């Protein structure tokens, strides 16, 4: 049988979805189907056509189509869900829970039927709880339902460390554990620059400021934009996760996974380091944490649990 191209569906053709679609095509990770609601069918088709018309200039051969029909998503290898409302200044991500849980369920009912074998990446907020909602609606195995938070949070953290030291971002390593909220846990002890632990390079008060800026990094962008939330770095993060799966790269990245005993939590979706490859989440890495780190993670886990309970009750 001839080798065929991968098919990637992106649900939600707003800021994050459209940016993700373009980046996926630019990297030729597959042919992209961009889906939004029927009321926005023409704008969605228009965005997809506009992106496609960039392909001769940029030299990519992925196709991009816009639609409001799930017929065209049939058999997708990967589905990325960005559908939902975004927050505005003064709101928390958790304020979006009821509206976006309804949207997530309706999207997943379609995906379940049309793309039963897909790996599914969730972006919509509050993302830990939305990953739970998707998992419940899809009924897919846990390795195929994956939330995006930690790649973005870690990218922000590494950006701020690189800025602080005036070094290349390529030499900065670190990661962020926990829920995608203001009590996420950037792990200073596991952060380094060119292999040197950051506490050897940056004074403690500056590290604390970087940790705090990372925690509120989404809100910083929301306040600057005024009418929506971040989309370039979120899209880049989704594309890195998509590439890890589609190319079976076996990356070690933070992602939202269903925890069943790991880190002492049960039936909880939250950000942890995972092995991301051709079978989705192939492994969850459990790190030893200090008492202080575990207490911070417990606080974050409690916040996520509270929002998941709203989804369960809704
Ligand atoms: N997890 C993360 O790290 C991040 C999460 N987000 C979240 O991603 C979501 C999307 O953000 P943006 O793209 O900026 O918002 P946006 O408002 O630009 O786009 C959302 C799109 O979803 C569409 N949509 C709504 N209901 C739909 C349905 N039933 N089916 C298909 N499409 C539907 C809307 O028509 C709109 O085009 C928000 O919930 C936001 O909070 C954004 C950035 C980072
Ligand atoms: O802050 C928001 O609402 C969007 C988001 O999750 C982020 O940029 O981290």
TrEMBL record:
<dbReference type="InterPro" id="IPR001557">
    <property type="entry name" value="L-lactate/malate_DH"/>
</dbReference>
<dbReference type="InterPro" id="IPR015955">
    <property type="entry name" value="Lactate_DH/Glyco_Ohase_4_C"/>
</dbReference>
<dbReference type="InterPro" id="IPR001236">
    <property type="entry name" value="Lactate/malate_DH_N"/>
</dbReference>
<dbReference type="InterPro" id="IPR022383">
    <property type="entry name" value="Lactate/malate_DH_C"/>
</dbReference>
<feature type="domain" description="Lactate/malate dehydrogenase N-terminal">
    <location>
        <begin position="7"/>
        <end position="147"/>
    </location>
</feature>
<comment type="similarity">
    <text>Belongs to the LDH/MDH superfamily. LDH family.</text>
</comment>
<feature type="active site" description="Proton acceptor">
    <location>
        <position position="180"/>
    </location>
</feature>
<feature type="binding site">
    <location>
        <position position="100"/>
    </location>
    <ligand>
        <name>NAD(+)</name>
    </ligand>
</feature>
<feature type="binding site">
    <location>
        <begin position="12"/>
        <end position="17"/>
    </location>
    <ligand>
        <name>NAD(+)</name>
    </ligand>
</feature>
<dbReference type="GO" id="GO:0030060">
    <property type="term" value="F:L-malate dehydrogenase (NAD+) activity"/>
</dbReference>
<dbReference type="GO" id="GO:0006089">
    <property type="term" value="P:lactate metabolic process"/>
</dbReference>
<protein>
    <recommendedName>
        <fullName>Malate dehydrogenase</fullName>
        <ecNumber>1.1.1.37</ecNumber>
    </recommendedName>
</protein>
<feature type="binding site">
    <location>
        <position position="87"/>
    </location>
    <ligand>
        <name>substrate</name>
    </ligand>
</feature>
<keyword id="KW-0560">Oxidoreductase</keyword>
<keyword id="KW-0816">Tricarboxylic acid cycle</keyword>
<comment type="function">
    <text>Catalyzes the reversible oxidation of malate to oxaloacetate.</text>
</comment>
<feature type="binding site">
    <location>
        <position position="125"/>
    </location>
    <ligand>
        <name>substrate</name>
    </ligand>
</feature>
<keyword id="KW-0520">NAD</keyword>
<dbReference type="Pfam" id="PF00056">
    <property type="entry name" value="Ldh_1_N"/>
</dbReference>
<feature type="binding site">
    <location>
        <position position="93"/>
    </location>
    <ligand>
        <name>substrate</name>
    </ligand>
</feature>
<comment type="similarity">
    <text>Belongs to the LDH/MDH superfamily. MDH type 3 family.</text>
</comment>
<feature type="binding site">
    <location>
        <position position="36"/>
    </location>
    <ligand>
        <name>NAD(+)</name>
    </ligand>
</feature>
<dbReference type="GO" id="GO:0004459">
    <property type="term" value="F:L-lactate dehydrogenase (NAD+) activity"/>
</dbReference>
<feature type="binding site">
    <location>
        <begin position="123"/>
        <end position="125"/>
    </location>
    <ligand>
        <name>NAD(+)</name>
    </ligand>
</feature>
<dbReference type="GO" id="GO:0006099">
    <property type="term" value="P:tricarboxylic acid cycle"/>
</dbReference>
<dbReference type="InterPro" id="IPR011275">
    <property type="entry name" value="Malate_DH_type3"/>
</dbReference>
<dbReference type="InterPro" id="IPR036291">
    <property type="entry name" value="NAD(P)-bd_dom_sf"/>
</dbReference>
<feature type="binding site">
    <location>
        <position position="156"/>
    </location>
    <ligand>
        <name>substrate</name>
    </ligand>
</feature>
<dbReference type="Pfam" id="PF02866">
    <property type="entry name" value="Ldh_1_C"/>
</dbReference>
<feature type="domain" description="Lactate/malate dehydrogenase C-terminal">
    <location>
        <begin position="152"/>
        <end position="310"/>
    </location>
</feature>
